[in-house]
Amino acid sequence: MSKKRLAIFASGNGGNLQAILEAIQRNEIEAEVKIVVCDHPGAYCIKRAEQFHIPTLVFSSKDFASKRDEEDWIIKHLLPLQLDYLCLAGYMRILSKKFVHTFPNQIINIHPALLPAFKGAHGILDAFQYGVKVMGVTIHYVDEEVDHGKIIAQDCFHVEENDTLETVEEKIHAIEHPLYVQVLKKLCHDESC
Ligand code: GRF
Q1: Torsion of CA 175, 93, 166, 51, to 10 degrees
Q2: What distance lies between CA 69 and its chain's CA centroid?
C-alpha cells in the first residue's frame, strides 16, 4: 500500500503538527507530509516543519486582494501534490465553500471542544467558562459550515474542582495529539472512520 499524501494546515504553535510528524517518523502512520500551509509568517509551526525538512507554504492574508485570490493561490500550489488528505491542525482561517468543494471528503479538522457544542475560535475558554463537567476534543470532516461536518472521533475528560483554564488547556492538548495520530493511522490504512 502506498503512503498517503498529506498537507497540514496550521497557524501557530504546531503541537498537533509535531505529534503527527513524530508518529510518521515512528512509522505509526503510513503517510508523508508533502507540505505545511501556514497563514502566519514567523509562527512556530513553520520551524517545526523545517526541522522535519517539510516544504512550507507561508503567506499572510494581507498579501492578497481577496480571500478568493488567497485560496486560489493555495489551491494552485496544492493540486499538483495529489494530496489524499488536508489536515487542519490549529488553522485559524475559515475555508470557503469553493475550497471545501475542491477537496471533497479530504479535509479534516481538530476542534478543542465536544462538537456540536462550543464551536468557534475559543472552544476551550467557552466550555470552561460555561462550567461543563466534561470537556474534550473532536476530529471531523470539514464541510461548508464552521466546525461542522461528519464526526470522526472524540475524546474527553472530567473537569476536576481544582482545574483552571491553564490545566484544562493542558489536558485538551494531551488528548488531542494522540487522537489525531490515531485517526490518521486509520485513515491512511484505508480503514473507515
Ligand atoms: C488546538 O487546540 C486545536 O484543537 C485547535 O487549535 C489548537 C492548535 O494547537 N484547533 P497547535 O498549534 O496544534 O499546538
Answers
A1: 70
A2: 22
For residues 118 and 155, what is the distance between their CA atoms, to the nearest angstrom? 15
Is residue 123 lining ligand 1, measured as CB closer than 6 Å? Answer: no
pLDDT-derived band at 191, boundaries 50, 70, 90: confident
CA 81 to chain centroid: 19
- The residue whose CA is least distant from atom 2 of ligand 1 is 112
Measure 15 CA to ligand 1 centroid, in angstroms: 7
Q: How far apart are CA 82 and CA 3, in angstroms?
A: 12
- C-alpha cell of residue 35: 507540505
What is the number of other CB atoms lying within 10 angstroms of the CB of residue 67?
15
Among protein residues, the one with the nearest Cα to ligand 1's atom 1 is: 90
Could you tell me if the CB of 187 is within 6 A of ligand 1?
A: no
Active site positions, annotated = 111
Residue 123 and residue 111 in contact, taking contact as beta carbons nearer than 8 Å: yes
Q: Which set of grid coordinates corresponds to residue 161?
A: 474542582
Average pLDDT over residues 62-67: 96
User: Each residue of 1-32: pLDDT tens digit?
Assistant: 789 999 999 999 999 999 999 999 999 999 99
Domains and CATH numbers, the chain: 4-188 (3.40.50.170)
